[in-house]
Amino acid sequence: MSDPYAQQPLVYSFGQGRADGSSAMKELLGGKGAGLAEMTTLGIPVPPGFTIASTLCQTYLDLNAFPPRLTRQLEAALQRLEATTGRGFGNVANPLLVSVRSGAAVSMPGMMETILNLGLNDQTVEGLAALSGNPAFAWDCYRRFVQMYGVVVFELPRTPFDLLVEEARVAHGAARDIDLPVAAIKALVARFKATIAEHSGRAFPEAPMEQLWGAVAAVFQSWNTRRAIDYRRIHDIPDTMGTAVNIVAMVYGNLGETSGTGVAFSRNPSTGEATLYGEFLCNAQGEDVVSGARTPQPIETLRDVMPGVYQELERMGRTLERHFRDVQDMEFTIEEGRLYMLQTRRGQRSGQAAFRIACEMVGEDLISEEEAVARIPPSALEQLLHPMIDPGEALDRLTTGLPASPGAASGQIVLTADDAELRARRGEAVILVRRETSPEDFHGMVAAKAVLTARGGMTSHAAVVARGMGKPCVAGAQDVTVDEHTQTVRFGDRELKLGDWITLDGSTGVVYAGQTRLLAPQLDQYYYTLMAWADKIRPMKVRVNADTPADAHRGRDHGAEGIGLCRTEHMFFDGDRLLAMREMIVAEDRPAREKALAKLLPMQRGDFEAIFRAMEGYPVTIRLLDPPLHEFLPKDETELVQLAEDLGRPLEHLRAVIESLHESNPMLGLRGCRLGIVYPEIPAMQARAIFEAACTVAARKGRVMPEVMIPLVASVVEFRRQSLIVRQVAEEVFRERQLTVPYLLGTMIELPRAALTADEIAREAQFFSFGTNDLTQTTYGLSRDDSGRFLPHYIETGIIDQDPFQTLDIAGVGKLVKMACDLGRSTRADLKLGICGEHGGDPASIAFCETVRMNYVSCSPFRVPVARLAAAQAALAARGTVDRTKATV
Amino acid sequence: MSDPYAQQPLVYSFGQGRADGSSAMKELLGGKGAGLAEMTTLGIPVPPGFTIASTLCQTYLDLNAFPPRLTRQLEAALQRLEATTGRGFGNVANPLLVSVRSGAAVSMPGMMETILNLGLNDQTVEGLAALSGNPAFAWDCYRRFVQMYGVVVFELPRTPFDLLVEEARVAHGAARDIDLPVAAIKALVARFKATIAEHSGRAFPEAPMEQLWGAVAAVFQSWNTRRAIDYRRIHDIPDTMGTAVNIVAMVYGNLGETSGTGVAFSRNPSTGEATLYGEFLCNAQGEDVVSGARTPQPIETLRDVMPGVYQELERMGRTLERHFRDVQDMEFTIEEGRLYMLQTRRGQRSGQAAFRIACEMVGEDLISEEEAVARIPPSALEQLLHPMIDPGEALDRLTTGLPASPGAASGQIVLTADDAELRARRGEAVILVRRETSPEDFHGMVAAKAVLTARGGMTSHAAVVARGMGKPCVAGAQDVTVDEHTQTVRFGDRELKLGDWITLDGSTGVVYAGQTRLLAPQLDQYYYTLMAWADKIRPMKVRVNADTPADAHRGRDHGAEGIGLCRTEHMFFDGDRLLAMREMIVAEDRPAREKALAKLLPMQRGDFEAIFRAMEGYPVTIRLLDPPLHEFLPKDETELVQLAEDLGRPLEHLRAVIESLHESNPMLGLRGCRLGIVYPEIPAMQARAIFEAACTVAARKGRVMPEVMIPLVASVVEFRRQSLIVRQVAEEVFRERQLTVPYLLGTMIELPRAALTADEIAREAQFFSFGTNDLTQTTYGLSRDDSGRFLPHYIETGIIDQDPFQTLDIAGVGKLVKMACDLGRSTRADLKLGICGEHGGDPASIAFCETVRMNYVSCSPFRVPVARLAAAQAALAARGTVDRTKATV
Fold first, then answer.
1. Strand (E) or helix (H) holding B405
2. How far is CA A562 from the centre of its chain?
3. CB–CB of B39/B344 below 8 Å?
4. What is the value of ipTM here, to two decimals?
5. Can you tell me the distance from the alpha carbon of B326 to that of B361, in angstroms, rounded to the nearest whole number?
6. Secondary-structure breakdown of chain B: helix, strand, coil percentages, each rounded to the nearest 5
7. What letters, b where the CB count within 10 A reaches 16 and e where it falls short, cover B481-506?
8. Of A209, A313, A552, B344, which has the maximum CB count within 10 A?
């Protein structure tokens, strides 16, 4: 069989200040191997050893055998290691022992295997005992080795070994393993070997070389364990990457009370504070820390026990930080007072710590402002901005729905909006649980801590309203059944009732039973400093999707530079407005419709005035009425009867109107500019409200920049007809008010046909705002509200990588967006381009927006900081100066 | 003001065998002017004159004045005309009289104005009387001229003039105008002038030049009358085209019994027979024929009255036919035994005549086979293929819906399928009128002559099934209300009841009250000859959309070369199948689903066998299950109860299933390959049915060419997963049957994303079939079923030119189709490309398919001949050798 890596060395040695590898070779040597090589070169005390390249992993898994070239190179490396350490592998008098560890390019913590003390057998253990003058230590090492070998190489369960140790401890009254008498440990080794032979039918290998090959094979095989495969799937790590194998001369933390082992961060990963942080265990080997068999002590105790070692560890932390220019997560072992570093890697950190560390490292001249910005993962920001479930809490999962609006909340189940309001007034924390919500539920959503719906998608009423209010929401939880009669909610097989506590995580979509401690969001000086740097970097503006003055203020507070989408219809869902809106809808002719519209005019004008004020000096994009009219009509009989009474209209007439407005596919029906074309009096009223409000604010010296947006345009003619109405009303109002307010007139690109004919549309439209929610629905032929029945299956089985409603589908929808940008600019060079779909708050999608040179992104108020950061990172990535792929928590 | 045509002559003279213009200058001179010029050059006796170019029309309408250049050129032309005729314009002794007529490049019959005898006034009329020796004639001319001038130039109504003539006739006991005594005519002229002065406040102009300019202005203005604008809108004629003005020396058909005027076709426009055909009126001017004041005689009478003139007319007809290479529609005048041609143009003809004429002209070596094919308009074919409402019938229009399936039918209203079957069995002709149809109505549709629905679009159940059966259908007639209780049907304000007769034209969508005579379709030798020529020309194959063996046979009868779309779901809508299908849908788990599928397997296999047999030697594209499952479930409670009984399942369970299958936008929901991915056992069963049937037919030496089509693919991964299932089943079946049948595996391109990623999909798919119905819906974001509320308004107000579901939207959807073709061929050079949406039967769309080099088009059985012809014409147009824009009826 051919060896695909014939030209590349397979084994890389390190030791005595020299190494074949370096940190640049992370892909080949894995994170651990590269770190060991780099530390060696840096003069950090690292036990010598060598690394088998990760490229060999796939070869081994394919062939189920090692290529002869590896055997030769490994033997050579082993000889070098023997020379460096002055010991011999299998040498009874002076045995060389090694650890064998996995290590992939991407950290997969706890996913793969480790074997320590390899090289011990019935002969060499005596040599180790003699050399160390500590037979208990030597036999303890041997006992551990046989156990690990049994578990890792022979794939036996841990339990029989643990039971035998437990038995021995009880028999000898020993508190810790290391307190057992030597004879007992010797007996354990024998019983371990018997256990291996019995369970596996094979003998424990006494020959060190046989031990070594078995361990290397086991490490490679561990790449394909179920849990490793699952982990890679979840974290999007390619299966072909493979793991490297690190073979390192043993140093011993279990040589007595001046020995030990531990893990330390160069800065506090939770708060970001610049002090050493970690844990330490006296007289122990690494797996004691990992297994939880003994409870480690805080790293500060090391300062008291071995102050010199502590100082050296601090010094090494600083050295490694300076070298790698980031926080380090270090594993170390102290052998009889001497410190060895066994591994160093980039330290994971909390959201809060990420900001502080980045800012302080800029202060220390360790990194640039750009690097600081590039290093903050958007998820860190999310942690900062929303209440989170305390990671320490034990949780009882009920179900998972769509993560419709981020943040977490606990509350008691309520089933109606009125009940929600009532109980909230009494000071109770409630979560509104509905099959789906409608405009009538609005006051209940205001009162509730969070919203859970059984139906509806990411753009359902519940989801949109909750996001607007920054309230957690889980939508479309398919196996939730709400029964208002019995006042119960079923979650699959489990039944909860009105008043029961639940906790909901709108960032993940998971719903838990019971009440849970939440961590409150907090913004500190580091947040503001770093966001200011981000703002300096990004060329793309960040706007907010805001339908109300409150949203507009919230957006400004989060740093929005204008409104990218003001959905006028959401202004109609409230009390009097809804009634006037319904009057307009059921009107039989134009005069009746205009009468109802006249009632809406002052309300809309008032809203626009307040919004313009909140956004003074910034552009405000107002979308004319978009949804199908039936969305505004009552859904049940009681409401319908009420409406007939309120409007003084016969019930039959209303029923006929509702019937006539029914659509098979409302998503593709009479909505958007189609409404404005059939009923030109609607855009006329809306335009009047916009320009009258703009004039009022401008008359008081306010800077108003309205951008009027025609929705759901499929052809330039639709745009032309609607813009004529808007321009005409604008001129009328300007004449009446003796005042002119500059404004733009543009369209939403949310249909494939608009994208395909963008050159024609841009001849007349001054801006495009990409409505990527609808564009995704039409391009994919995928109704977001209905996708719950197959989209999860699609993602699970890998038919699609990501929910295209979360992250823009670049290959399909993105191709259309790019085409529209290019075509649009071909006929209007200064065309203003933005995005206002949900994707405007998604970092990966924002990166795409940067590549097509959009002028701005727009998102819900609570996503604005995420968008500001992501836009800056996208700009840095586009410049190619800073690699933002490093940004993970 | 600038004159945009400063360099171009404005006036073109003709006469004495020489002409400034020719038939090539139709655009500039209009059809009439170009014809007169060409005839003059040909030596045909044409009265001399000149033409004012049509380009001046827009200039005049913009300026409301004539440019000075025109005055100079017109005066020069008039002098030439005086010289040619030897008469003087306004010369009392020897007056030159002229006709002034409009004439655009495109014929707009009766839309614009004509004035005869211009140049007469109180002096010149005496000259004409003296010259002709016939004062009655002279004064008759003058009387007509004043009347026409009053109507055309002064825009007065005809009525007062007609009343005055009537009065005079009664007073003098004259049967015809021309029988009035001279004094009476003189009196009429005076009273006409008084009428003009009274109604318009202006005097009738006595000066011939003033008369002429007034007439020219009136002709130009007639371009913008309401009816002319409407006509252009309907016939898609650009407003900027303008009309030319023809000023021609008068010849007189009203000089006595050896004079006359008439219209003749060089061949019979109704049957196509190669004999002169037309009408003739003795001693009359042209407007007598047009106005219907006198009833003309058949042209044969001319043979008896003036045999020499008749022979000359025949000869001229042949000459003009040879010259223009098409049937001529000629206007002529006989002045005292001398024949003059006043106009010639291409003769309109019936569908039947079109075929005969084209075939016979090939026989006469007048045109080539290619030209013959290019000349048949697809509408001529439609006339031949479907029963038509006799154009002579007076009709009482009830309403208009969508023209869902062509052809006409008369029948009595029935409201239920059972009633339809019952009455049809009794031999009654019935039309099934339903709010909408569902699978349960199928037997009623089979029994009915035609179907009318109040709801649903061009792809509704009623429409699809009716087209499949070749039965007329009008769908989605919005103002139809069906009331089964009172057994009445309301059409807007009118109410009809069960058993009342209606007539329905599925080609236009119009519904009429009462019974009407229909013309039966007939196919003759000319049809077969011409279609055979068409088949030789076209590179694109024509397939049929056929779901049943009957459809397949029908397709073959009409010349289909395979099946382009076999919708397997339509096989499930019948009796037992529907029950098994429903059992499958309500199944709780895979085993239960597979049990139900096992019942469907033999039924599908049987259908496929019969279809393969019907299409032996031709490819058959079978689309796997496509529609959302809820389409198969009962729509009302009674049926639901019945189903619960039939299946022995609790009613509640069925209700829950129906509830769970509800979708907000089923068009964009769980359908197409998404079904096959969620329930892989469905495509597995279907594939088994296909390959077992194929093997059975192949085993008996039949040539089977199945092409399995995966529907609604948005990404290559979906295609890959589904094709794996199909391939695996195919291999299983081939192994079981010890036989291999070659097959193709491809996909329907019906989502924008599929088109955008067609390069990736073509790496794995062997063919694409464009499902342009759904592609139009998603590209436009337009649900066909819901578009009835605004699409008609869009077309009426010119927002879109044509219904995009009828004719492919080339700028938008076509751009995607072209992109998909190009991308697809870029990764698979031999990719097979076809279209199977409704557009596959639409000539304009077929022409587009030719430009992107599709391999075939596919359409419903009764559209196959249309597609064959259109494909041939598209090929000719693409070659550029034959201009098919001529093809109109």
1. strand B402-405
2. 26
3. yes
4. 0.80
5. 8
6. 50, 15, 35
7. ebeeeeebbbbeeeebebebbbbbbb
8. B344
Instruction: Label residue B882 left, alpha or beta by phi (over 0 means left) and psi (-120 to 50 means alpha).
Output: beta
Distance CA A545, CA A773 (A): 13
The tens digit of pLDDT for each residue in B400-411 reads 988 878 889 999
Q: What is the dihedral of CA B642, B643, B645, B648, to 10 degrees?
A: 180
Chain-chain contact of B799 with A718 (C-beta, under 8 angstroms): yes
**The tokens of B508 are what?**
């236009």
Helix (H, G, I), strand (E, B) or coil at A456: coil
Q: What is the pLDDT of residues B415-436, one digit of tens each?
A: 999 899 899 888 889 999 999 8
Q: What angle do CA A628, A630, A633 make, to 5 degrees?
A: 140
Check if the beta carbon of residue A516 is closer than 8 Å to that of residue A352.
no
CA pseudo-torsion sign A623, A629, A630, A632: positive
- For residue A332, with 0-12 CB atoms within 10 Å meaning exposed, 13-18 middle and 19 or more buried, which class applies? buried
Determine the Cα–Cα distance for residues A430 and A445; give it in Å rounded to an integer.
10
Q: What is the pTM of this model?
A: 0.80
Which of A533, A559, A539, A538 is CA-nearest to residue A371? A533
Within a 13 Å sphere around the CA of B432, how many CA atoms are in the beta-carbon half? Answer: 32
* Cα B856 from chain centroid (whole Å): 23
Q: Give the separation between CA B246 and CA A793, rounded to whole angstroms.
A: 74
d(CA A645, CA A638): 11
- The per-residue b/e assignment along A263-273, b for 16 or more CB within 10 angstroms, e otherwise, is bbbbbbbeebe
pLDDT at A856 over 90: yes
User: In sequence order, what DSSP letters do the residues of B750-764 get, joined into one string?
Assistant: -SHHHHHTHHHHHTT
SS (H, E, C) B700-736: CCCCCEEEEEECCCCCHHHHHHHHHHHHHHHHHHHHH
CA A384 – CA B761 distance, rounded (Å) = 43
* pLDDT tens by residue, A489-499: 999 889 999 99
Is residue A565 within 8 A of residue A615, CB to CB? The reply is: no
Distance, CA of B542 to CA of B863 (rounded, Å): 10
Measured between alpha carbons, how far is A500 from A498 in angstroms, rounded to an integer? 6
B619: Cβ contacts below 8 Å, ≥ 6 apart: B543, B562, B563, B705, B706, B707, B744
Kindly determine whether residue B667 and residue A780, on different chains, have CB atoms separated by under 8 Å. Answer: no
From A386, A461, A553, A839, the catalytic residue = A461
- Residue B207 buriedness (CB in 10 A; 0-12 / 13-18 / 19+): exposed
pLDDT at residue A313 in the model: 96
CA A626, CA A604: separation in Å to the nearest integer?
Answer: 15
Q: How many helices (H) and strands (E) does chain B have?
A: 34, 32
User: Testing the interface with B: which of A764, A786, A790, A791 to mutate, by most B Cβ within 10 A?
Assistant: A786
* Residues of A whose CB is below 8 A from B779: 751-753, 756, 778
- Cα separation, B247 vs B219, whole angstroms: 11
Which distant-in-sequence residues (6+ apart) come within 8 Å of B753 by Cβ? A779, A780, A781, A809, A812, A813, B714, B715
The C-alpha atoms of residue B196 and residue B202 are separated, in whole angstroms, by 7
Shortest Cα distance, chain B CAs vs residue A345, angstroms:
37
Residue B632: count of CB within 10 angstroms of its CB? 20
Contact criterion met (CB < 8 Å) for A717 and B674: no
| Residue of A719, A828, A714, A832 lying closest to A768 (CA atoms) | A832
Distance CA B58, CA B52 (A): 12
Q: Are B373 and B381 in contact (CB under 8 A)?
A: no
pLDDT of residue B346: 87
Residues in chain B with CB shorter than 8 Å from the CB of A480 are none
Beta strand B473-475 pairing with B450-453: parallel
Mean residue pLDDT across chain B: 90
What is the pLDDT averaged over residues A814-822?
Answer: 98
